[in-house]
Amino acid sequence: MFLFCSFIERKLPLVKHYVGQYAFGSEINKKLKKRMKKLLILITLLLTTSIAQADSKLQDIKKNGELRVGTTGDWDPMSMKDPATNKYKGFDIDVMRELAKDMGVKVKFVPAEWKTIVAGITADRYDISTSVTKTPKRAEVAGFTATYYKYGTVPLVLKKNLKKFPTWNSLNKKNVTIATTLGTSQEEKAKEFFPNSKLKSIEAPARDFQEVLAGRADGNITSSTEANKLVIKYPQLAIVPDGEKNPAFLAMMVPKGDKEWNDYVSNWIKAKQSSGFFKSLLAKYNLKSL
Fold first, then answer.
1. Which residues pair with 239 in a beta bridge?
2. Phi, psi angle pair for 180, to nearest 5°
3. Which helix (H) or strand (E) holds 223?
């Protein structure tokens, strides 16, 4: 494939030259020019397709024998990093280990932060990310695989403040501070849900819910998945009881425009859904997709 592409690239200027030479002249030359133009278009399309296929992450991963995965390690139970061992565990970590195993390659987890997780894809620091929420802003520069999990968004407050903050609307006041983690989808949604509140963005490795625990914020919003884990780990926290909002889909991020790699992972996800892999994994982590 490489040799073919190189040959075409060398000959393409020559073809263009002859097309130019026959720009004017006899009727025969005009017909020849028309045919040459068609040939030029065909060669250009073939060359573009061949180069796109050659540049796919799929070939790089198989050639290098390694799948590089960007992950934040701070989203319980999707991706958690044990500070004592520096090893990762969680739902998404199991998914990525399974993907690497089925590809016959090793997996390498690359530390990422929410504020730069998209940049990690565009800068080629990793081949794929663990799950993130599909948002239009992220989709401008990164590709999304097929989804495999759906969740809702809920607010968390101190349990002792539930009477004061029993609803979403009770948190939407100018004297209320809502904490969010910088770079997350919740940071953007907080502006929509709480236009009257004071918003406070927290930079990783600190987290928004820690501001609530410390009394520096009245509440924060997070996925229902994480919230259900946090209220068990921190009994002083409680979920505001008037329902979930903003149903959202999780997917992995891959380089935008790499259709071959995206299709490979998306088809793998669908096959694993059919085999019951994701169902078993949801049970393992006591999760329920909406």
1. 156
2. -135, 160
3. strand 219-223
DSSP classification of residue 177? E
Which letter does DSSP use for residue 161 in this model? G
Q: What is the CA radius of gyration of the chain?
A: 25
191-210 pLDDT, tens digit per residue, is 999 999 999 999 988 899 99
Would you give the distance in Å from CA 46 to the centre of its chain? Answer: 30
The Cα 128–Cα 268 span in angstroms is 14
Q: What is the CATH number of domain 150-248?
A: 3.40.190.10
CB atoms inside a 10 Å sphere around CB 212 = 25
| Whole-angstrom distance, CA of residue 162 vs CA of residue 165 | 5
SS3 state of residue 82: strand
- Max CA pair span of the chain: 90
- Residue type, position 208, single letter: D
Which pair of structure tokens corresponds to residue 132? 């993130």
Residue 15 reports pLDDT greater than 50: no
Which numeric CATH code is attached to 58-145+252-284?
3.40.190.10
Q: How far is CA 172 from CA 155, 162, 178, 198, 257, in A?
A: 11, 14, 9, 9, 40
Say whether 106 sits in a helix, a strand or coil.
strand
Residue range 116-158, pLDDT digits in tens: 999 999 999 999 999 999 999 999 999 999 999 999 999 999 9
* Backbone torsion region of residue 73, taken as left when φ is above 0, otherwise alpha when ψ lies between -120 and 50, otherwise beta: left
Residue indicated by tokens 């982590």: 285
Burial tier of 160 (Cβ tally within 10 Å: 0-12, 13-18, 19+): exposed
